[in-house]
Specification:
Number of helices: 9
Bound molecules: NADPH dihydro-nicotinamide-adenine-dinucleotide phosphate
Subunit structure: Monomer or homodimer.
Order of helices and strands: EEEHEEEEHEHEHEHEHEHEHEHE
Distance between the termini: 20 Å
Number of strands: 15
GO biological process, one term: prostaglandin metabolic process
Enzyme class: oxidoreductase
Pfam family, one: ADH_zinc_N
Strand content: 25-35%
Keywords: Acetylation, Cytoplasm, Fatty acid metabolism, Hydroxylation, Lipid metabolism, NADP, Oxidoreductase, Phosphoprotein, Prostaglandin metabolism
C-alpha cells in the first residue's frame, strides 16, 4: 500500500495566496488495476496560471499543476516501470493514473505523456524550456509577433521561464531585444548571459523614459507577460503595424476578476498605430508541440538557447515555491524537487 501526500485547496485564494489556503493531506492509494500505472513525482511545477485558474474549481480539489513523475508500478504495457511521464496530476507525491480520467486537452484534463529521452539533460526541463513554457515561448512569439530580422522586440517578465526564452528566440531571429524584469540580478542575467541587447528594471527605473532611449525608432513586437500599466506604456511606443502577443497578465493575477485594477486606455495606441493585439493559450498549437520540442532542443544543443531553473527542495515546500514565484523570487523556471 502506498500513501500519497497531496495539497488540497481548502479556501479559494483572495489577494496573495496564503499558506492556510492549502492543506497537506495523506491518502492511501488503491492497488492498480489493468491499464493503470502508479507514479512517484520527481519534479513539480509552480506556474502563474495556478493563481487565477484554481478559482474555476471547487474547494476540496487537489491543487492543480503538472509534474514529471517516474512510473514505479504498471499494468499498462505502453507505460513501463522506470520510464517517466509529464502530466497534470496536481500537487501530489504519488498517483494512480488511469488514462480514462483524462479526456480533454486543457490544463488539468490533458492526458499524461511519456517524457521523451532527453539524454543527460534534467527531466525537470519537461516542465520548463522543453515543456509547456517552452512551447508558449516558441509558438506564442513566432506565430503572433511574426518577427522580422532588424525589428525591435520588448518582452516583459523577461527573466522568467517564458520571457527569458522569448528574448533568446528574438535574438536567434535577428531582432534587437529589450527585456523588462524586476531586479538588477535578473537584468544582468538576461543581458550578460542570454544576449538580450538591453534590460530595464521596472522596479527602479522609469520604463517609458528608458524605452525612449533604448528604442528611439520604436517597438515592432511586444511579448506581454505582465499586463497592467507597464504594457500600456509600451503600447504607446510601438511602431505602425506593431504586433503584440498577449501571453499573460501576472500583474493582475492576485486581483479578484470583478475588481481588476484600472489602467490607461490602450485603444488610441491600437487605432493610430494600427496594432495587432492578440491573446492566446498555448494549447492552440497542441497538435504542433513536437515541432516546438524538436526546435527548442536543437537550440539548446547548439548553445543558442540557455535556461535556468530555481529549484526548491521538498514536496512540502510547494506553497513556498508557488508564493515566491508570484513575488518574483525565481530566475528562469520555478520548480520543486520532490
Ligand atoms: P515566470 O517564470 O515569469 O514567473 C513569474 C514572474 O512574474 C516573476 O518571477 C516576476 O518576475 C513576475 N511578476 C510577478 N508580479 C509581477 C508584476 N506585478 N509585474 C510584473 N512582473 C511580475 O512565469 P512564467 O514564465 O511561467 O509565466 C510568465 C507569464 O506567461 C505569466 O503571465 C503566465 O500566466 C503566462 N503564461 C501564459 C501561457 C499561455 O498559454 N497564454 C502559458 C504559460 C505562461 P519579476 O521579478 O520580473 O517581477
Amino acid at each position: 500500500m502506498v500513501t500519497a501526500k497531496k495539497f488540497v485547496l481548502v479556501k479559494h485564494f483572495e489577494g496573495e495566496p496564503k499558506p492556510d489556503d492549502l492543506q497537506i493531506e495523506t491518502e492511501e492509494l488503491p492497488a492498480i488495476q489493468d491499464g493503470e500505472f502508479l507514479v512517484e513525482a520527481e519534479y513539480l511545477s509552480v506556474d502563474p496560471y495556478m493563481r487565477p485558474y484554481s478559482a474555476r474549481f471547487p474547494v476540496g480539489i487537489t491543487m492543480i499543476g503538472s509534474q514529471v513523475a517516474k512510473i514505479i508500478e504498471s499494468k499498462n504495457q505502453h507505460f513501463p516501470v522506470g520510464s517517466r511521464i509529464v502530466g497534470y496530476l496536481g500537487w501530489r507525491s504519488h498517483t494512480v493514473v488511469n488514462l480514462k480520467n483524462f479526456q480533454g486537452s486543457g490544463v488539468a484534463d490533458a492526458p499524461p505523456m511519456l517524457l521523451p529521452d532527453m539524454g543527460n539533460l534534467s527531466p525537470s526541463l519537461g516542465l520548463g524550456v522543453l515543456g509547456m513554457p517552452g512551447q508558449t515561448a516558441y509558438f506564442g512569439f513566432l506565430e503572433i509577433c511574426k518577427p522580422k530580422a532588424g525589428e525591435t522586440l520588448v518582452v516583459t517578465g523577461a527573466a522568467g521561464a517564458v520571457g527569458s526564452h522569448v528574448g533568446q528566440i528574438g535574438k536567434i531571429a535577428g531582432l534587437k531585444v529589450i527585456g523588462i524584469a524586476g531586479s538588477d540580478d535578473k537584468c544582468q542575467w538576461i543581458t550578460k548571459e542570454l544576449g538580450f541587447d538591453h534590460a530595464i528594471n521596472y522596479k527602479t527605473q522609469n520604463v517609458g523614459v528608458e524605452l525612449k532611449k533604448l528604442a528611439p525608432n520604436g517597438i515592432d513586437c511586444y511579448f506581454d507577460n505582465v499586463g497592467g500599466e507597464i504594457s500600456s506604456t509600451i503600447l504607446y511606443q510601438m511602431n505602425t503595424f506593431g504586433r503584440v502577443s498577449v501571453c499573460g497578465s501576472i500583474s493582475s493575477y492576485n486581483a479578484d476578476s470583478s475588481a481588476y485594477p484600472k489602467a490607461t486606455v490602450i485603444q488610441p495606441a491600437a487605432v493610430f498605430g494600427q496594432l495587432k493585439i492578440e491573446g492566446f493559450l498555448v494549447t492552440r498549437w497542441a497538435d504542433r508541440f513536437l515541432e516546438g520540442s524538436v526546435k527548442n532542443l536543437q537550440w539548446i544543443k547548439e548553445g543558442k538557447l540557455k535556461y535556468r531553473e530555481t529549484i526548491t527542495n521538498g514536496f512540502e515546500n510547494m506553497f513556498k515555491a508557488f508564493a515566491g514565484m508570484l513575488k518574483g523570487e525565481n530566475i528562469g523556471k520555478a520548480v520543486v524537487k520532490a
